[in-house]
Amino acid sequence: MTIKYSVLDQSIAVAGEPQGQAIRNTVELAGFCEGLGYERFWVSEHHNHPSILGSAPEVLLAAIAMKTSRIRIGSAGVMLPHYSPYKVAEQFRVLDALAPGRIDLGLGRAPGSDGRTAFALNPNANERPNQFPADVRDLMAWVNGTPLVDGHPFGAVKAYPAGDTSPQIWMLGSSDYGAQVAAHFGLPYAFAWFFTDGRGADQALKLYKQFYRPSELWPEPNATICVWALAGDSKAEAERNFMPRAKWRLARDRGQFISMQTPEEVLAEGFSESDEMRIQAMLRDGFVGEGAEVAQRIKALGAELGVQEIAIVTWAHEESIRQRSYELLAHHLGVSEAQGVAA
Q1: 76: domain CATH number?
Q2: Is residue 300 part of a domain?
Q3: Confidence at 112, pLDDT banded by 50, 70, 90
Q4: Is the dihedral of CA 32, 35, 38, 41 positive or negative?
Q5: How far apart are CA 241 and CA 320, in angstroms?
């Protein structure tokens, strides 16, 4: 089975740079990854987060649509409980008009924020508990231009602009819930491996495949995982460039959200003995190292899980480091060959 490879970007804050530069870097990276032959380029949604600055994927995707011509682009994802399904359908119908046949609408149920921020986004969310599956159902109808269920109060309402193509709807998750919703509606499913370091992935993917109900667009299940990876020209180089990410993870686990520092700054400050042990575990269990080695580990995981696609997310202080990592992985994963893109 040939595995496709894609990219997820989160618009990460870098120390010493204006935060707006992170958004501009995402747009530039999308064009770069298109040139390498990756299948998709997804952007995430987070709110009130000083480190992860991608707060409006639907806006960012419009800019990316104008800078790319082949690669599929999409959200990973829109946190649907914050919004009206009808408004999301309109936004993504507009995006499909800008890039016909290239738009992915990835959906999530998690808040992408803390509880207070979620309330600020949608003060009425608690008035519609357990509404997520129904909202997904309605969104699918509006996005695809098909009728809503009989007796629906908004049955006469359509989402425009209409067109010959429609966004692909994906379900995202890091637990069993999203897997079961995806299976119920016959949607492709992406598990956020990098959220959990893989915990729960095997169970979620098994449930997805076991209970999958074929749909017209997706007669077979389509499973994806998203992994964090950093490749370098040497193992030592990659591990050095990983140190800012390692420090960020350690700080996050203490409730602190920091910007990406340089490897030199991080190494000069040093780590405690217990933190050093945790970093060694991250390196042992993660996807960090020389390009061919990292690519082989990613391939092996995909084969073990039986997924159709793997998306890769990478953080680094310097854009050149991220670009080199995606370049090395594209080469060693055979991205352009596997996906039929001219090198």
Answers
A1: 3.20.20.30
A2: yes
A3: low
A4: positive
A5: 11
Cis peptide, bond prior to residue 161, ω within 30 of zero? yes
Asked, for residue 256, whether it belongs to a domain, the answer is no
Q: Identify whether 138 is part of a domain.
A: yes
What pLDDT, on a 0 to 100 scale, did the predictor assign at position 340?
53
The range of the structural domain enclosing residue 162 comes to 4-236+288-338
Tell me how far apart the alpha carbons of residues 30 and 277 are, in angstroms, rounded to a whole number.
35
CB 173 within 8 A of CB 80: no
Higher pLDDT, 125 or 2: 2
Domain count, the chain: 1
Q: How many CB atoms lie within 10 A of CB 269?
A: 10
The dihedral region occupied by 340, where left means phi > 0, alpha psi between -120 and 50, and beta the remainder, is left
Question: What φ, ψ does residue 315 adopt, rounded to 5°?
Answer: -115, 145
Residue 173 and residue 191 in contact, taking contact as beta carbons nearer than 8 Å: yes
pLDDT top residue among 256 and 341: 256
What integer pLDDT is reported at residue 247 of this predicted model?
A: 96
DSSP annotation of 41 reads E
pLDDT at res. 219: 97
Least confident stretch, 33-37, 59-63, 280-284: 280-284
